Amino acid sequence: MSEITAKRSAAPVAKQALFLLFRIGSERYALRATEVAEVLPRLPLKPIAQAPNWVAGVFAYRGVVVPAIDLSALTFGHPAEARTSTRLVLVHYRPDEQQPSRWLGLILEQATDTLRCNPEDFQSYGLDNRQAPYLGPVREDAQGLVQWVRVNDLLDDAVRSLLFPAPLGAQS
């Protein structure tokens, strides 16, 4: 192997990652594909009494009762449009590294495309949006900006305890 070939093979390669794209209104957002367990059609949900309006309800999936939230309602206060491209996306929710991940359903509009890019292409947009900590950095492309949604930052403590109560005997 020549010295030039060795240098080429040792050059750092940008790590590509796959993202699931979706929309809220006309705005584009992305979820890291490794956080997605499955993309399902929109399913009937059982409402949860006294939950915030963006908590869409629960559904049974493979023997587990899974809570679901409407990301459009959470982010902008209006429910996702009922379109043929509106999906119930099952994600791995793990806000605490000490705990195992749990399934969380996300109602997402136009969740039909993917994006492969280097995660470092997403850049901070300079605002400290404490009311929506799940809205991460943005990436610009020919279609405009796409914003990364961080799954583990979706729920605050109060909603997390409502949707994922501690098992009996686990209270301290």
Automatic annotation (TrEMBL):
Q: Which GO terms describe its biological process?
A: chemotaxis; signal transduction
The cross-references to Pfam families, in alphabetical order and at most eight, read: CheW
Q: What is this protein called?
A: Purine-binding chemotaxis protein CheW
Q: Which SUPFAM superfamilies match?
A: CheW-like
The organism encoding this protein is Pseudomonas jessenii
| Residues covered by the CheW-like domain | 16-160
GO cellular component annotations of the record: cytosol
